[in-house]
Specification:
Chains A, B: Residues 119-389 form the Fumarylacetoacetase-like C-terminal domain. Chains A, B: This is fumarylacetoacetase. 2 copies of one chain form a homodimer. By secondary structure, chain A is of the alpha+beta class. Chain A has 2 domains: 5-109, SH3 type barrels (Roll), CATH 2.30.30.230; 117-399, Fumarylacetoacetate hydrolase, domain 2. Helices cover 17% and strands 28% of the residues of chain A. The first copy, chain A, contains 10 helices and 26 strands. The model of chain A has no long low-confidence stretch (mean pLDDT 96). At the A-B interface, strand 7, strand 10, helix 7 and helix 8 of A face strand 7, strand 10, helix 7 and helix 8 of B.
Chain lengths: 402, 402
Amino acid sequence: MSAAGWLELAHDDPFGVHNLPYCAFGQERLRGTGVRIGDRILNLAAAEERGLVDAGGAFLGQGTLNRFMSAGRPAWARVRERLTELLSAGRHRDAVEPLLLPIAQVRLGLPFEVADYVDFYSSQEHATNLGRLFRPGGEPLLPNWKHLPVGYHGRAGTVVVSGTYIPRPHGQRKAPDEAAPTFGPSQRLDIEAEVGFVVGAPSDGPVAVDDFRAHVFGAVLVNDWSARDLQAWEYQPLGPFLGKSFRTSISPWVVPLDALDAARAAGPAQEPEVLPYLRAAEHHGYDIDLEVRWNGTVVSRPPFAGLYWTPAQQLAHMTVNGAWARTGDLYASGTVSGPDPDQTGSFIERTWNGARPVRLDDGTTRAFLLDGDTVTITGTAPGPDGVRVGFGEVTGTITKPE
Amino acid sequence: MSAAGWLELAHDDPFGVHNLPYCAFGQERLRGTGVRIGDRILNLAAAEERGLVDAGGAFLGQGTLNRFMSAGRPAWARVRERLTELLSAGRHRDAVEPLLLPIAQVRLGLPFEVADYVDFYSSQEHATNLGRLFRPGGEPLLPNWKHLPVGYHGRAGTVVVSGTYIPRPHGQRKAPDEAAPTFGPSQRLDIEAEVGFVVGAPSDGPVAVDDFRAHVFGAVLVNDWSARDLQAWEYQPLGPFLGKSFRTSISPWVVPLDALDAARAAGPAQEPEVLPYLRAAEHHGYDIDLEVRWNGTVVSRPPFAGLYWTPAQQLAHMTVNGAWARTGDLYASGTVSGPDPDQTGSFIERTWNGARPVRLDDGTTRAFLLDGDTVTITGTAPGPDGVRVGFGEVTGTITKPE
């Protein structure tokens, strides 16, 4: 079968049969889960109802992917193999084509119900930059940073799908030279470009590093919107809270881990050597290229491949204390920043706290987000035969406070 | 009607008709929600099925309280009034008595599905003690503490019901005089005695301080188990993570806010004055007395009434940035500690980091928790006519690591 198959997609379509990301959608009376092929989605409930796919009923009557995600890797692999066949072999065309919906005609929803949301802090460049900006004069990288993937729990209930408007949050902020805090709309609204991993098969105890692929279903793009003024005032000693919890956006497409096989890579060397529970026999890094557009202007290209901690190490760490991982747990990488300013995944880094504003294509300049600004993060990864795997985009527009 | 009613409870039974806390239970083929009266529970699905209570079907076929909690205060008040009548007026005895189950014969479950879990840090005495212990030499209370209720998100997926065993967590720890971290079972396992508040009616934006009672359904006891060695090594700069996320225990009874009317009290005076969004017209403090037993020995009596920040201020703060509150959101007070050592809600405070071990009734001494130790936290609050309102207990026993 050709990569293009009966759908006659371009050979290098990032949403060819080598990708097959899953989604949830709603459309008038129709609501369900789907899989993307080119610029269409296959209605999975309809496919299962007609016996074209057998996911043990996991697609029937479901508005989210959670039930399918909980089925585990053997089921994911079986369904993926079958979908590949249905969307490639010409003999299935007559049965499958009526179940395809143009993406432009559906409303894409949050692809899964988020159980717990954790955000890591795994880019050494980002952690160093933020340390310099938030704790000037101190050691930017704290002593624990190279021994464990630092992370914290975020607010699962405010994770929203790409396209959802982002009301500018209110809150307390206090500049160092002010005597007391004031209250008002954030004046330092920022983004964090990240990649998130989604737990499918739950665990009732620690997940070994090399068991990562047995539990994690796939990956999404994440924009962890951040109000830096709120965050700076509130975050000691218990960490970020309202500066992050107003909204977190994710892409509507969950890219299956199986689609990212060609993107697997060794992470950076880790020195000092990590403790045994964080050592892996396999490569669990991923070579994913992100691109950040601010009102259409590309302002940054953060390289995920440079992250110090892999998603497999993050999951192993997160559960090593006996915490369960549940279907729908979302854990994000933390801001992806490379060594160069135009590789940074946040604007506080990109503009160095506003000191070096960026110029947009319309001639205006920006330090932080203005009302009406739109930020779009896209991502692609190497696929088979030199074809890219598309993550699609996570986008959001800032509105005045609600 | 007498407070004892046809059930012939003692006048001062802390679970008389003035209390009526809700629960979820399982028992062989029977699974549902209930309301406690004395040492029995009324099966609410059965009561609604038979037309004795009308909760709009919220009790039918439900294994948790979430659906009822989402119905809002008018529904809660109507149901409470009807339950009071059913359990007081003798004419209902024949219909109601067959639906009562002895508590000893049911297994109590997690009373609601936890949406997001937030833990605050609202006792000035606790924050000061922990500041001294975790940041010796520094200012114990950070500059933001009296301006906002400091808090962070915890792990919702590991909130368990009272009685669940608590496996000692593994993790990284590093003493200041050690060159590198080591890995192993926590050697400084601790408790935090807290009171948690449960959101019933959701909000799609900020909740004003004085709207607290329109959204919050009731209160539970919380033990936020804490591995101090893990926490000390990991918590900077993003806050506690694995030192807390292994398990958090809550009592099986959700005490309705309406049962706590007589316990309402002014919080402590707040100086400096707080920002307008944290100012209240009504009293939202609660006078709840906690008691902590370590293997049966009472080691502490933390006074909730002394908390600096009220649960109404906590909810207002948590949502002021536009974050939604969902049905099932649980937010806890943070450790409740009074000014005296025998009023502290954690053992790291009670034993001053192990320097002043406590002697138990069996003659042994303790600094932190040993395998096999059981901690039980109980609570009561003033009710009408001098009768106490019981919270029951949250208990847990430490087991060897899984």
